[in-house]
Amino acid sequence: MKAIKIILCLLLVIVTTSGCLKYDVLRDNPNNPISVPPALLFTAVIPRPVSSFTDSYQDPQYHTFASADSGPVNYKYGTGSFYYGDKIKDNDKSTTYSAISSALRNIDKMVKEAESAKTPVYPILAKFLKAYYYITMTRQMGDIPLTEALKGAEIPKPRYDSQKSVFIQCLNWLDEANTELGAFITANPGASVDGDIYYTGDLRKWQKAINAYTVRVLILLSKKENDADVNVKSRFQAIIQNPSKYPLFISLSDNMQITHRDEDGFRGTYNPTAGILKEGVIYADTYIDLLKSYQDPRLPIIADPTPKALAANPTNEAAVRADFASYAGASAAATAIDNNLKKNNGEFSRPNEKRFWNFTGQPSILLGYSEQELNIAEAANRGWIATDAKTHYDNGVKASMDFYNAPVGDYLTSKAPYISGPAGLKRILEQQYLSFAENSGWEAWFLNRRTGVPEYKFSNVNNITKFPVRWAYPTAENTDNTANYRAALTAQFGSEIDDRDQLMWLLK
């Protein structure tokens, strides 16, 4: 995937810098195009999934890293270090904020090029993409510029929109994208979209993805279920009650995911060229212990038994792998030194070598069927929709099992059956956490921030004793857009302090 990222970065640079040229005073060079095909821009702005065993899933989401020179265990959700307490550096083009800003500019460019090329499907999909990126930013930071954003010299210092208004606008964009795409498909049967990295141009699958993503956003707003302006319950009901207008994923084949292959730019992160990962990656006990508590058949598929357990019964490996006591994860409440010592003593499970230690691993999911079904089960459990929570719970769990080719057996009837009420809600959330394992980017973290599930461990021997709840704004906001930045802080938090522990509207 690295090669793809490099190519896309170059494309973004070409597109964003080309706008500075004054073509009316330059002589056209037939060897240098003065426009970019919308399909090329579409490829560049489509969000990408995160490959397994990268920092986004580390400490203690699903795995941790232990080596002789490891520092204190971080609750690390970002490349290399814990970013929540730091201001985002605006000159660092690898940061989420800069990448999203570039993507949004290129979405606008894509729309203009599509209008010139008379390809209306791209402006429709642009509404989905804009909603995706603005929601990504607002759920990280809180209030953000939207209405006046990306106006350049016209509005160099955009005001911030409230987080509530950002969500309403994005939900409206998503609804418009679904309606307009449905009408386009009806009027143009057999039409496809070029530049698609997920569905080879299948617009029907894109329409499903838009609605599956809308379901994710509505669940994200669970604390605002009674806000009449946002209208969470009614929006959810509209989707569930009208499947012909709002088609949803129906199987794993609808997943927005990348299937890796042994070619440059398409390999997963955890592969035989990354020996340091095999040496250092061990599973976190948060993940392993929950699987063990349910006697979950996914466990022997995702993990190898501890070396200690294998050494204790060297003549019957099959029996060791079938024994749930053979698996153990490292504690994020322990020091990296302690975890490393125990790792060297053979006390921790590593990723299943047969499944993961190769160039293809498992597909990297951005948005999946299992998540969708468990989100619907949660909405039904909360009483938002009149549908059977158990049906969607079973669908979601079975889909996750199928992703791993794990036998379901009696799991849904005796080991982890759906139950109603608050206990049932907790079980749905636990299964959602398990389904997010090493996929879907930050969704497990946002699940925990919203619900407290799963229950993570903390310790004063490490860098953090509690989870922060938001990212700080980019440092340039305080220098380049001072008045609006400080007004947004005061409006949200009652002071001009930009702190990682302050509660945004979404969480109140």
Describe it for me?
The protein has helices at residues 2-18, 38-45, 96-117, 121-141, 163-187, 203-220, 232-241, 275-280, 285-293, 299-302, 307-312, 317-322, 336-344, 353-356, 369-381, 389-403, 411-415, 421-435, 443-451, 476-480, 482-493, and strands at 63-65, 256-258, 281-283, 364-367. 47% of the residues lie in helices and 3% in strands. It is mainly α. It is built from 21 helices and four strands. Among the domains are: 2-49 and 87-258, Serine Threonine Protein Phosphatase 5, Tetratricopeptide repeat (Alpha Horseshoe), CATH 1.25.40; 369-439, Up-down Bundle (Four Helix Bundle (Hemerythrin (Met), subunit A)), CATH 1.20.120. The longest helix has 25 residues, at 163-187.
Characteristics:
508 residues, mainly alpha, Serine Threonine Protein Phosphatase 5, Tetratricopeptide repeat, Four Helix Bundle (Hemerythrin (Met), subunit A), two-stranded antiparallel sheet, 3% strand, disordered N terminus, TPR-like_helical_dom_sf, SusD-like_2, Starch-binding associating with outer membrane
For the secondary structure, the number of strands is: 4
Strand order of the largest sheet: 1-3
Mass-distribution shape: globular
N- and C-termini, Cα separation: 38 Å
| Strand percent estimate | under 5%
| Corresponding CATH architecture of the domain at 2-49 and 87-258 | Alpha Horseshoe
* Broad structural category: mainly alpha
Could you tell me the CATH topology label of the domain at 2-49 and 87-258. Answer: Serine Threonine Protein Phosphatase 5, Tetratricopeptide repeat
Number of helices, counting only DSSP H or I runs of 4 residues or more:
21
Helix content: 40-55%
Protein name: Starch-binding associating with outer membrane
Pfam family, one: SusD-like_2
InterPro entries: SusD-like_2 (IPR041662), TPR-like_helical_dom_sf (IPR011990)
Organism: Pedobacter lusitanus
